[in-house]
Amino acid sequence: MIWNNLIESGIYLVCVYILFWIGKLVYDLTTPSYSMKEELVEKDNTALAVAVVGYYFGLVLAIGGVIVGPSAGLEADLMDILLYGPLAIVLMNMSRVINDKLILHGFSIRDEIIRDQNVGTGVVVCASYIATGLVIYGAVSGVLGGLVTSIVFWILGQLALVLAGRVYNWITPYDIHEQIEKDNVAAGVAFAGALVGIGNIVRHAVEGDFISWAMELQTFGIYVLIGLILLPLIRMATDKILLPGRKLSDEISNQEKPNLGAGFIEAFSYVGASFLLVWVL
Fold first, then answer.
1. Among 66, 183, 84, 204, which Cα is nearest to 135's?
2. Cα–Cα distance between 91 and 133 in angstroms, integer?
3. CA proximity to 102, closest of 62, 58, 159
4. Which pLDDT tens digit goes with each residue over 24-57?
5. Which residues are CB-contacts of 131 (< 8 A; sequence separation ≥ 6)?
6. Is 70 exceeded by the pLDDT of residue 234?
7. For residue 255, what are the contacts with CB-CB under 8 A and spacing of at least 6?
8. pLDDT of residue 255
9. 85 in helix, strand or coil?
10. Could you give the CA distance from residue 262 to residue 171 in angstroms, rounded to a whole number?
């Protein structure tokens, strides 16, 4: 019995690696304006490295949604992988275009990462990939759903991430796009935490077996609303509890050298709170 399980696990692992390789190939083919090897090896472009790592991590999460859960038998599982694996890759790369245009819409992301090697931009792009991977993980996992439900929840998840970006920019006393364009890595890290936190909440909202549209949409709406309401509350709590006597906005945007540590603390507060939230709901 154990040998049969090991053989099946090996087959699944090979399928996952093939899907990951295809996902990497799709990324390379859809970014023909620069050479990945030249940027990473010869120019030491850290901004691009951070962004690409986010894509790879998001891709792993997206593919993971295809293989988690109880097995329906090797043949049925392979059919699901063959169907939903490529779907996850397509959605991941479509999300890249959407997030580039709608989340960091104040400037050219390509110019910031390739020309200016802006690590702050790379961090936000990295987070948008991870958040999208979390959304796709939830959208393609579970049973009783299908292609339509997966695509619908992916669309709703993207809308939630875009909305979260708007809300975050509204609750911060500085313009997030202006700060990131000025190479403020601390601002980028803090914003990245908010995106991953919302992505994790959306993942939990859409994860699991599909029951009915009414119930699933209601659950999704409630979870996203809670997440958006918590954004300013978490930021206030971080000021009072994690950085007593200091203001995040001053540490991140009102210093000659932005406090990167403050950015990480704010990012942690969003991600940590998202896990606590999904565990208690």
1. 204
2. 9
3. 159
4. 999 888 887 788 888 988 999 999 999 999 999 9
5. 58, 161, 195, 196, 198, 199, 200, 202
6. yes
7. none
8. 86
9. helix
10. 17
User: What is the average pLDDT value for the chain, to the nearest integer?
Assistant: 87
Token output for 192: 């990245």
Q: How far apart are the first and last CA of the chain?
A: 37
Query: pLDDT per residue over 1-10, tens digit each?
Result: 576 777 877 8
Tracing tokens 């009915």 back to the chain, one arrives at 212
- Say if pTM beats, i.e. exceeds, 0.90: yes
Tens digits of per-residue pLDDT, 81-115?
A: 888 788 888 988 888 888 778 888 777 888 999 99
Which of 259, 108, 242, 121 is closest to 180 using CA atoms? 121
Single-letter amino acid code for the residue at 53? V
For helices 147-171 and 185-206, angle between their N-to-C axes, nearest 10 degrees: 140
- Angle in degrees, 0-180, between the axes of helices 74-102 and 119-140, rounded to the nearest 10: 140
* Dihedral Cα 161, 197, 207, 101, nearest 10 deg: 20
Q: Rounded to 5 degrees, what angle do the CA atoms 231, 236, 237 make?
A: 95
Euclidean distance between CA atoms 271 and 243, whole angstroms: 17
Q: Show Cβ contacts of residue 138 under 8 Å, excluding neighbours closer than 6 positions.
A: 65, 153, 157, 202, 203, 204, 205, 206, 207, 208
pLDDT at 71: 65
With contact defined as beta carbons under 8 Å apart, do 125 and 114 qualify?
Answer: no
Rounded Cα distance, 156 and 220, in Å? 9
- Side chain identity, residue 215: M
* Residue tagged 């911060």 (tokens): 172
